[in-house]
Amino acid sequence: MSRIADEQENFSLLLPISESARTTAQLFAQQQPTHEKSERVFFNTLSVLTVNYYLDLMGIATNLEVGDSWNPLLRLCMDVSDLEVSGVGRLECRPIRASLKGCYIPAETWNQRIAYIVVLIDESLLEAEILGFSPSVETEELPLNQLQPPEALTAYIKQYKQIKQQVKQQIKEPINTPTLVNLSQWLAGVLEHDWQTVESILSQSEYRPSYLFRSSESALINREGETMSTTRRGKVIDLGIQIANQPAILIVEIIPHENQKTNVRLQLHPTGSHIYLQLGIILTVLDESGNVFLEAQSRSADNYIQLQFNGEIGERFSVKVGLDDASITEHFVI
Fold first, then answer.
1. Which of helix, strand or coil describes residue 199?
2. pLDDT tens-digit profile of 209-240?
3. Domain spans of the chain, in order of start
4. Neighbouring residues of 311: CB distance < 8 A, sequence distance ≥ 6
5. How many whole angstroms from its chain centre is CA 284?
6. What would the 3-class secondary structure string for 273-294 be?
């Protein structure tokens, strides 16, 4: 085996070429129309099989049949010499001759491979030498003195796989954009996102408390003697075992005022046979930045807790119902 240069001699990796590898390379070569094309496919195949053998020794899974170099049509039409690393990407495995100082890298592979590996095929076809690799290329000739040692290839692949998995996970994780309940639509009779009229909730025996709420729709008189409508909607809030399987009813009441102002009243009631809320339930109003604006906590004999504030049209806020480590948050826009 002849060496390329002294700088490669210190870290190149010598590997045997198996008889089956030579047989496969010869089979692919015989399918080509010209001697030049046949020779190129032969050495390309040996270089791919050499890298595949090395990665198998290192415990890195590959898939030969996925690569373009294992596609008969692409072998015929293109200069392909790639190897698929399972779950990571493709390596470009390029053969060279002993007299060369650089390795030819087809332009169509630039930015399409996770690394470019240079393989010296011995004239006897019994041995191959992995000279090193480069994570990227920018010219058709990759200088051999710029190669990283082959021993670093497995660590590079594992790191690349880890980064790829992290990026993939970030893409999979949805951006938590909260669903906004539009309170202004309630005034037009539009219900949304599991919110119901209070009567609808009370009609269900398992939720009907020991006392009744007043009507969900009523009229108020402002200082000018004008009639103002008030609308109430409810939703069953269940924090599970934290409140001993005792759901509560969150009621939101809105009363429009002049000058684009809206009065918002929040109430949290027990359900079923329970007269009082469980001790320690916290009802919180958060502003658009997530800061606590108002807060109330149930005591031992509270049959409901309440918060009230004024807001402007288009203003956003959130309502959080919590007990110990469990909580549910609803998001609103006036």
1. helix
2. 655 554 444 444 444 444 456 788 999 888 76
3. 6-172, 180-333
4. 261, 262, 264, 317, 334
5. 31
6. CCCCCCCCCEEEEECCCCCEEE
